[in-house]
């Protein structure tokens, strides 16, 4: 019975996993995939079940050992007890059944471990942008909500930076989409290296990136301006002719907001100001208006 329960749970986990694999391919249009919370609950269930089967398998091993001791004790008394051979045969039958049960539990444990690793892999894939290796928009949205919720409960403030690659369309039009992809990868790499202490660096979509970082606002904006200068002075080597790439950045921080969306909106307004004024610069939004970081003549460098 116990093996049947475990097998049923394994089949349930496999079914959920397969459902996720199918749904993942259609999630953008049909919404058939499990939610992130559901997938994480499945993963947690498998981990707990794996630990339980491991513990139960250990208990069965102890039970097997005790039966062996009992069998030896009966053999000692076999000369004075006519029923001893029958008892020994019965004990052997029980031990054989117990050994089969242990083998099945160990097999179920191996299967659970395999399924857990697969689901962990799928969860990682669901949170990662395939091209850049950064966190994707889904992972960013969740992290932003979590960070904002912590802030609302009295936690430390944070800053949000939105980054846009200047004139990105021209890279695709002039050099082709493959070069455009390489530009995205190189920008992502530089952002990851320069912002290694950020809470999260993610691909926001298209040629945009989003960074959740520690505040306060002015310090975060100054740091993003240093990143902008590093990017402007860095040439991307694509194996042919090196390309110069610049970025525009908008930075904001939470104020008396009830939800996180106004933080994104203000960062987007600051980014729009940076691009509209001339690109290759950083603007921040203090909740009232947007302001340029550094003097205009410096920002152009």
Automatic annotation (TrEMBL):
Cellular component GO terms, alphabetical: plasma membrane
CDD domains membership: GGDEF (cd01949)
InterPro entries, alphabetized: Diguanylate_Cyclase, GGDEF_dom, Nucleotide_cyclase, Rev_trsase/Diguanyl_cyclase
NCBIfam families from the UniProt entry: GGDEF (TIGR00254)
SMART domains recorded: GGDEF (SM00267)
Coiled-coil regions listed in the entry: 91-125
Example of a GO biological process term: cell adhesion involved in single-species biofilm formation
Record-listed E.C. numbers: 2.7.7.65
Catalytic reactions on record: 2 GTP = 3',3'-c-di-GMP + 2 diphosphate
UniProt-recorded name of the protein: diguanylate cyclase
Keywords: Coiled coil
Domain GGDEF as annotated: residue spans: 156-287
Transmembrane segments: none
A GO molecular function held by the record: diguanylate cyclase activity
């Amino acid at each position: 019975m116990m093996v049947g329960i475990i097998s049923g749970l394994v089949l349930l986990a496999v079914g959920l996993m397969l459902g996720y694999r199918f749904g993942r391919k259609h999630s953008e249009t049909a919404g058939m995939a499990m939610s992130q919370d559901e997938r994480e609950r499945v993963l947690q269930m498998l981990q707990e079940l794996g630990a339980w089967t491991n513990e139960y398998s250990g208990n069965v091993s102890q039970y097997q050992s005790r039966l062996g001791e009992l069998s030896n004790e009966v053999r000692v008394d076999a000369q004075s007890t006519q029923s001893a051979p029958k008892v020994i045969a019965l004990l052997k039958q029980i031990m054989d059944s117990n050994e089969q049960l242990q083998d099945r539990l160990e097999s179920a444990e191996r299967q659970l471990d395999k399924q857990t690793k697969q689901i962990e892999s799928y969860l990682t894939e669901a949170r990662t942008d395939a091209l850049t290796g950064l966190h994707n928009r889904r992972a960013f949205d969740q992290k932003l909500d979590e960070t904002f919720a912590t802030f609302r409960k009295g936690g430390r403030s944070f800053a949000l930076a939105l980054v846009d690659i200047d004139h990105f369309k021209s890279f695709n039009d002039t050099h082709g989409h493959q070069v455009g992809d390489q530009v995205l990868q190189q920008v992502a790499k530089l952002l990851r290296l320069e912002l290694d202490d950020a809470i999260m660096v993610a691909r926001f979509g298209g040629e945009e990136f989003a960074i959740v970082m520690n505040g306060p606002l002015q310090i975060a904006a100054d740091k993003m301006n240093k990143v902008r200068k590093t990017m402007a002075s860095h040439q991307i080597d694509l194996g042919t002719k090196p390309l110069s790439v610049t970025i525009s950045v908008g930075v904001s921080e939470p104020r008396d907001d009830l939800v996180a969306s106004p933080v994104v909106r203000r960062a987007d307004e600051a980014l729009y100001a940076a691009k509209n004024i001339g690109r290759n610069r950083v603007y921040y939004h203090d909740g009232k208006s947007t302001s340029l970081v550094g003097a205009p003549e410096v920002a152009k460098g």
